[in-house]
Automatic annotation (TrEMBL):
Source species, domain of life: Bacteria
Catalytic EC class: transferase
Native organism: Desulfotalea psychrophila (strain LSv54 / DSM 12343)
Identification of the protein by name: Hypoxanthine phosphoribosyltransferase
Keyword Cytoplasm: yes
Keyword Transferase appears in the UniProt entry: yes
């Protein structure tokens, strides 16, 4: 048993598995028959759990790479100052690219990352986010593949942290303090 208290489950482990499986099918369908391997980019740290499950649900040949960005620090409020902490090892020029994120909230992180990646001239650039909070959007960003839209609650688990904790929860929950 996971030894965490004061957490209300929002998306159970079973529901998470169903969402990932559906997204895997949608992505595989979208990139059916592409000529070169799909480049799947996980945004660290939050996406590492979802990314690990998602790539195994995608049937398209792919290469995986990671980029580390941070905007929330250890808090629950975006600093809006998105920093690239670690860049890609892969050149994405002329490639089909899928960016994987755990959550799109205000859209600030993704909008900066997408601009940065667009400047490297990929053949195509699409976005897959496990969660999205549309009511919080400050900047419109495309979410081509969306796991689930959720209300304005600060969520944890399945890669999402509060002060770097709770990323290992196998479900998504709300911290009751
Ligand atoms: O749409 P936004 O309001 O910009 O919020 C979304 C971002 O916030 C979280 O990252 P965080 O900065 O907490 O870093 P982490 O991935 O290391 O948890 C999350 O992983 C997204 O990248
Ligand atoms: N852990 C966590 N990080 C976020 N970053 C943006 N929104 C959220 C959220 O609801 N939870």
């Amino acid at each position: 048993m996971h030894q965490f208290e004061n957490i209300e489950v929002m998306i159970s482990q079973e529901e998470v598995a169903g969402i990932v499986s559906r997204l895997g099918k949608e992505v595989s369908e979208e990139y059916k028959g592409i000529s070169e391997d799909l480049v799947v980019i996980g945004l660290l740290r939050g996406s590492f759990v979802f990314m690990a499950d998602l790539v195994r649900a995608i049937e398209t040949p792919l290469v995986a790479d990671f980029m580390a960005v941070s905007s929330y620090g250890d808090g629950t409020v975006s600093t809006r100052d998105v920093k690239v902490v670690m860049d890609l090892n892969t050149s994405i020029e002329g490639r089909d690219v899928l960016v994987v994120e755990d959550i799109v909230d205000t859209g600030n992180t993704f909008s900066k990352v997408l601009t940065m990646l667009e400047n490297r001239s990929p053949r195509s650039l699409k976005v897959c986010s496990f969660l999205s909070k549309p009511s919080r959007r400050e900047i419109e960003v495309p979410v081509d593949f969306c796991g689930k839209e959720i209300p304005d609650e600060f969520v944890i688990g399945y890669g999402l942290d509060y002060a770097q904790k709770y990323r290992n929860l196998p479900y998504v929950g709300i911290l009751k303090v």
